[in-house]
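To: structure subgroup
Subject: Chain for Friday's discussion

All,

I'm putting the inputs and outputs inline so they're searchable in the archive.
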Amino acid sequence: MRFRFHDLRHLFAVRFLQNGGSIYALQGIMGRTSVKTTEIYLAHLTPDQQLKSKMG
């Protein structure tokens, strides 16, 4: 399997959310204009973690 820089972005995003970060804060950190694009990382969280990240 080949390692790409994008893999680090993905790992950071998932870990940030798993540790209680807000999806909206992550959107800003990653420079996304839409939260919908950032929500792809929610699939890697438990339902409880998803709820917390959406609540801010």
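Points worth raising on Friday:
DSSP finds four helices and no strands in the chain.
The chain has a mean pLDDT of 94.

D.
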